Amino acid sequence: MITVQIKVKAGAVGGIDRLKRRAIGGLKAGIGVLEEQIKANLDGPPHTAQQLAAMGHPYATRHGSIQASDPNEVGRNTGSLYSSVKTRPEGEGQALYFDESVAPHARAILQGTGTMLPRDPIGPVVSLPANQEAILDAIVEAV
């Protein structure tokens, strides 16, 4: 889970509530951009079990690493993992999370299993400078 929080020092005066509301609005905008970017990684081409077998099971732990051109892309078969990406207020910030009631298999894909390697649709998104800039631009524009 990615959590971004803003805390305002106790006893702060004058206009701080307005600034705090604007800052939280900026964080919501930034998290919204992040959500869109993560969903793009969850919108890969679908693969049937037969196709994965023909590909040599590229996500199998026996390989030691993912044997696919984009190791963090996740195929969109039913769309439930894509739909499970959500945001919610958390404290004075926003949290982005995968709702396991929508996609019970989310944990298996993100953390792996005994036979399947984990995939990380979040890390590459936040590490790319262009994506970081888009997130910061959304925050600044909203504030």
Q: What can you tell me about this protein's structure?
A:
- It contains six helices and three strands; from the N terminus they run E-H-H-H-E-E-H-H-H.
- It has 143 residues and is mainly alpha-helical.
- It has one domain.
- It has a three-stranded antiparallel beta sheet.
- Helix 1 runs antiparallel to helix 6.
- It starts with a strand and ends with a helix.
Summarize it:
The chain is mostly helical and 143 residues long. The chain has six helices and three strands; from the N terminus they run E-H-H-H-E-E-H-H-H. The N terminus is likely disordered.
List strands and helices in order, with pairings.
Elements: E1 2-4, H1 16-41, H2 49-54, H3 80-83, E2 85-90, E3 93-98, H4 106-111, H5 123-127, H6 129-142
Antiparallel strand pairs: 1-3, 2-3
Number of domains: 1
What ranges have pLDDT less than 50 throughout 5 or more consecutive residues?
Answer: 1-6
Note the beta-strand portion.
5-15%
Structural class: mainly alpha
What share of residues is helical?
Answer: 40-55%
Based on the structure, what is the oligomeric state of the protein chains?
single chain
| Main beta sheet | 3 strands, antiparallel
Give the strand tally.
Answer: 3
Q: State the distance separating the first and last CA atoms.
A: 24 Å
Keywords:
143 residues; mainly alpha; three-stranded antiparallel beta sheet; 6 helices; 43% helix; elongated
